[in-house]
Amino acid sequence: MANTVIYQEDWAATVQEHLDEPTIWKDICTVDISNKRVVHNPYRTDATVQTGTRETAYTFQDDTITDESVTINTYKILPQVIDRADLAQTDYLDQMQLAARQGTLLSEDIGTAIFADHANMTDFGTSSIGGGGAATDQITVSATNIDDIIRGLRRVIRVAEGETMLNRNGGFIVWRAADLEILEAFMQANGFSTADTALTGGSRQAMNYMGFTHYSSELLAANHLMAGVKKAPWIGIVRDTFGQIMVDDKDPNLVSGVSVVSRVDYKEKIWTNVKPVIFDINVA
Fold first, then answer.
1. Integer Cα distance of 195 and 200 in angstroms
2. Which CATH number goes with the domain that contains 279?
3. Considering the domain boundaries, does residue 37 fall inside one?
4. pLDDT in tens, 9-68
5. How many domains does the chain have?
6. Pairing of strands 171-175, 224-229
7. Smallest Cα–Cα separation from 189: which of 211, 215, 209?
8. Phi and psi, residue 199, nearest 5°
9. Mean pLDDT of the chain, nearest integer
């Protein structure tokens, strides 16, 4: 007789494994995994240097500390029910594949949320690469301007006084697949071999070029790319629900089967003090 047991511990381990595996959002974000509900990140506005006059009293200058906080309250859940007959006819491997898919889908949801937060990033558009218009105007990515985009990003990071952070953490650009293909062609045309670099020049799906790590994602919002300094974007994740599984084998909702429920609680945030080095690249 077939084994009809849902392996709860193995399910949890498999979901956790797929949530933990290398992904773009883990490379580019500071990931804070804890059970905190509210996270505070105060930032300081510096005092102003004064010009003194001899034999004249000076004036003390104040600096300002502003508290910024975020509440981790985004709750995403993936509930599934497996019919008892299907369960009886499903082997262990099939169950673990389903568990792995749950972990992958939850991880993709986190990535989508980060990319969708482009309204809180710094705009980067045609004016950012010397093409006139405004930073909100869309760039048509091509072989003739893709290097301008990369150089323009480095320039605006320098202007924002983020070069030290860039040198320490590295930069990133998340392209669409077609854009990354243009970049690969540009690299090859300029004497670079990408075959090995694309596999070894960073984490999965990444390659390093012109001081940035380049990724490709199908989770980007339409007409928007994301770029900036690594570890500047922030995401908080609730530890005790991250990759946890709840199994109910008592015919949930009067359905003859077993329910398996995974969830993740998180919140993405672009903090004010690092917004100048996180970019929403507006593209056509």
1. 9
2. 3.90.1690
3. yes
4. 777 777 777 666 668 999 999 999 999 999 998 888 888 898 989 989 998 888 888 899
5. 1
6. antiparallel
7. 209
8. -95, -30
9. 87
